[in-house]
Amino acid sequence: MGGPALLALELDGDEDARRAQAGLGAIPNTGLLDALLNLPLGLPVNRSALTDRERRVLARALTGCLDRQRSTLTRLARQPARVALAVVTARRGFRDGLAGAGRFAPFCARALLLPRPPRDLTTACAEADYYGIGLLVATGESTVEVLVAPEPFDSTRRGSPHAWWFAETAYQAHLDASPARRNHSR
């Protein structure tokens, strides 16, 4: 996404546990995620109803993504987490920071963390608010002041393979930080 960000992750505990039991980590393939999105969750679909492309892609699906029966496939995998907020730090100035935070717009709420208040505080707050980006300023070693609250993300939008991929990427980072699950990723 162009640089480091702090992501606030809301883990789907049931899906995480199901994947752990199945030995399934993150699913990093957007083509597979697209094919999975075309299947209803938990309902069997006749293989004959799938396109040749869907059958080829789903044949390579990792164990734990699908329940495979002789004539049907049932999608088991769902998004394992939701990224609630991405916080980006301004590396080369306020506007670059806004652009960096803006890259997360299709996926989650976003905020920009500044090491100190900007020179023109009123303009900075107005711009951040206009783009729906929260504006945070570090006020000490471990304290942050919220100057502009981030605009809530509209989670009712239909999921896309790229949005699911983003959640899987964040989930992989979670797995990498979890020693018990680290070996089950990818």
The CATH topology name of the largest domain reads: Rossmann fold
Shape, principal axes of CA atoms = elongated
Give the tally of β-strands. Answer: 8
Strand sequence of the main sheet, in spatial order?
A: 1-5-6-7-8
Structural class per helix/strand content?
A: alpha/beta
Order of helices and strands: EHHEHEEEHEHEEH
In terms of DSSP E residues, the strand content is 15-25%
- CATH class of the largest domain, please? Alpha Beta
Mean pLDDT: 91
Please count the helical segments: 6
**CATH architecture level-2 label of the largest domain:** 3-Layer(aba) Sandwich
Number of domains: 2
Which residue ranges are poorly predicted, with pLDDT under 50 across at least 5 consecutive positions?
A: 182-186
For the termini, the CA-CA separation is 20 Å
What percent of residues adopt helix (DSSP H or I)? 25-40%
Rg calculated over all Cα atoms: 20 Å
Largest sheet: 5 strands, mixed
Tags for this entry?
186 residues, alpha/beta, Rossmann fold, 2 domains, five-stranded mixed beta sheet, three-stranded antiparallel beta sheet, 6 helices, disordered C terminus
